[in-house]
Design brief:
Subcellular location: Endosome membrane; Golgi apparatus, trans-Golgi network membrane
Family: Belongs to the VPS53 family.
Protein name: Vacuolar protein sorting-associated protein 53 homolog
Order of helices and strands: HHHHHHHHHHHHHHEEHHHHHHH
Structural class: mainly alpha
InterPro entries: Vps53, Vps53_C, Vps53_N
Mean pLDDT: 78
Distance between the termini: 90 Å
Strand order of the largest sheet: 1-2
Pfam family, one: Vps53_N
Number of helices: 21
Amino acid sequence: QVFPSQDPLDRADFNAVEYINTLFPTEQSLANIDEVVNKIRQKIRRLDDNIRTVVRGQTNVGQDGRQALEEAQKAIQQLFGKIKDIKDKAEKSEQMVKEITRDIKQLDHAKRHLTTSITTLNHLHMLAGGVDSLEAMTRRRQYGEVANLLQGVVNVLEHFNKYMGIPQIRQLSERVKAAQNELGQQILADFEEAFPSQGTKRPGGPSNVLRDACLVANVLDPRIKQEIIKKFIKQHLSEYLVLFQENQDVAWLDKIDRRYAWVKRQLVDYEEKYGRMFPPEWCMTERIAVEFCHSTRAELAKIMRTRAKEIEVKLLLFAIQRTTNFEGLLAKRFSGCTLTDGTVKKPEVPLPSTNPFLEDETGTETDEMVIEKTDTDKPKKPKVPDNPFHGIVSKCFEPHLYVYIESQDKNLSELIDRFVADFKAQGPPKPNVDEGGAVLPSCADLFVYYKKCMVQCSQLSTGEPMIALTTIFQKYLREYAWKILSGNLPKTTSSSGGLTITSLLKEKEGSEVAKFTLEELCLICSILSTAEYCLATTQQLEEKLKEKVDASLVERINLTGEMDTFSIVISNSIQLLVQDLDAACDPALTAMSKMQWQNVEHVGDQSPYVTSVILHIKQNVPIIRDNLASTRKYFTQFCIKFANSFIPKFINHLFKCKPISMVGAEQLLLDTHSLKMVLLDLPSIGSQVVRKAPASYTKIVVKGMTRAEMILKVTQ
């Protein structure tokens, strides 16, 4: 590793035989053996010489090493001595520096203490003079000068907090507190004199003295400021409490506009007369408005409890509308900074919206329900900022919203009855295969009304009334599903009389069921399309209700049961269509099982019963497909259900075809193949536009009909 070598003789795994073979690879190379031997011997002699030289060179190494070690030790001792001398000199230097800086530190401390003493004496002089001036100005009511001086005295006094053990300092502090108390009582007395609790306001408006007194109140205990604000607002609203007493005619809800008109005039009057008297940061105009709202809410709540039987829906909605308009006006005029004391709960932030109800609810509502599937592609509109004054007055109406809820219950009941009557009077929708299955107009009308009620109720309250309204919505969604949709599904008749939907689904094989007319097929498809529209719109309605209601009540909004009801209507409609086509094919299958298949002598074209089945399929399927053009997935379900019903029945009838000859089996195999091709083409049969059948449907047909073909091949 120290002396790398490429010589084979230096390798650790040296092999003499391999080395010799390398030197003499062939017999001819042995002619040079003497020359090779001489070279090796010379190499051996050189190695011996090198070894002798190295051995002789190492004879005096030990003595030289000991001599070098002794010299190194002597050098270390000399170095240690020098380091010790340097350390001693450093300690002497440090001691010298300490002696030099001792006097400097003493002078520095003396300077700092002297500066502090001078500053403290200046503060003491300012404090003593300020207290004297403060007491004199207080007696002369020079509030303008007092406001600036008092703040300075308080700031200076803070520097003496650690010296309160000194009697003179403590005495000055007590004089400042006494002056503050005297100022507070004096200012309150001045305001009481200017704005007495009883009687009229002082003529001539506010004075400069009171304006300066407000500046002083900013420096005093906050309770003084609150007392001034409380007394002024109470005196300012005293006339309101008298004019709109409970026994006054103007106090009732029909004249609620007069309350808001009165406070608007008072706010304008305040701005003109007293706007400059109070500091802007007191927000007196907003405080007056807020206190008016609290008083109004209490008065309205009291009078509505007393005259609850006189509250009508129109009157209640009128009062709520005027109140919410007033609250909106307050939000535009004021910031709501005086509401941070928690007297009014700010509205909850609604959950992010993920539904297509995106029309502007702040404007005028239209009569069209914007709950279309295309709405999901529209961009969401930004939310309007929360109104901090929302509910500050209108909260009092919430206990009486049951009147509104009961009214909506009654209106919806009448609406459902009208839908039933209109359907009976107008009859089923006319067949219109060009436009597909039409959604019943009553469905859109119902959800238009729901949207209007939801928006209106959310403006009134986002709490329990919204839950009550949701319960009403659930009730009439179920009634619409059963009375309008399920109730108008066509009934089938058999030899044993009328059958309901339930009995239709359980009908035994072989019953002679009458085939639906074109109008009845269109009606079933229309009801199916309507139920599908109701299902999608109910889901959107649930999401919108959750967005409107308080976050704590979101879990109580659940329209899953109603969506399941519409799903049942869809399932029943599809089953009716399947049963109708299935029953139409029954006579042909019965004819197949009664044929004498042992007498068939030759194989021809498809049998008459196959032609009959194909005829019924071509009559029904295009009508159903065209009327379900807007709901392709349910047409696919119809095809799948028909295949699952028809194919097993066809196989059962195959087993009844006994006895059967070889030729008969071949004819049946041909018929089975014909039916298989028709069934594979079922989704697009009779259509100008050929579409590939869904893979799920194709799989069912191929599997079922292949089984039938295998049975016939085994028979052969």
